[in-house]
Protein: D-glucuronyl C5-epimerase family protein
Amino acid sequence: MRKLKHLWQIALRYLRPGSSLSFWYLPVSHDPQFEARGPGRYPVNFRRKAEYKGLDDNGIPIMDYGANIGRQYNACAISQYALGLHALYLDSPTPQAKTLFLQQADWLKENQIESPAGIQGTWPLPFDMVGYRIKGPWISSLIQSQAISTLLRAEAISGDSSYRGAADLAFESIRTPTSQGGVTRFIGDHVIFEEAPSSPPSTVLDGFLYSFWGVYEYALATGSAEAEKMINGALDWLKENIEDYDIGFWSRADVYRKSPPCPASRHYHQVHSFLLSAIGSVFIDNQLQGYAAKWVRQDANLIYRNLAKIYKIAYKIIFY
Structure:
């Protein structure tokens, strides 16, 4: 009965108009004009996210999770919405576009709180992450890093150093090991960003890649030797482990369960290729660019897409 109830809640998220998934699955694309040397264009084009209509009275996205969770703010959604607005601002730098973007960055700056482990500058999610058996409230490298990317852009277009201060606070949880309540695992010289700090580790690929980009941008903007060292360790880990995320005809979402591998949804399969392509081009790495190109080809293959979709549905029914 408990399993059926959980599956019904998942189904409602997909079927109910206006659910949180109406935001997460808005189409994204690769932005080939992303700026690798400063907080300009982001490698993932979030312009369609700026079309989201589920806003509060102050123009801030709020997510409807249904069931017992209800409507909640999610700093990851707010950051992606903001990055979409930022792209539109760069397209047409009007005062209105700037104001809309900075409203989101202001929300991030004003709503940083202490994590359950006592780390400053975080945006905890108050609900459980059932799929990875994480009890709320919990913090995420994905949230922390995309907020950093947003705050750095806010500083760049406003000249207001308080946004940099908020980004510095957000970095604290990233430099803190998961064993101490942070969002990063340190194994020897390897650095592993955890979107969902679970036990066993889930190491969600899109979360790792988004986090990598946020820390990379932070290192560039601040000159932080610590952030640069983390990026080098994360790049080494990625190059040594990217093959674990290739399941032959598609990309893998995470490594929470070793077998069978959890396939990515098409949306996140595309995100994997976008971010790998960006990272591979910045660090001139043929291996990463090769996987990115392979996954793009797979996404263009109707047979592979349908096989991945059927596999994903079956996986959710059995394991979620």
Summary: The chain has a mean pLDDT of 94. The CA atoms of residues 85 and 101 lie 5 Å apart. The first strand starts at residue 29 and ends at 30. The beta strands are 29-30, 44-45, 63-64, 71-72, 184-187, 190-193, 252-254, 262-263.
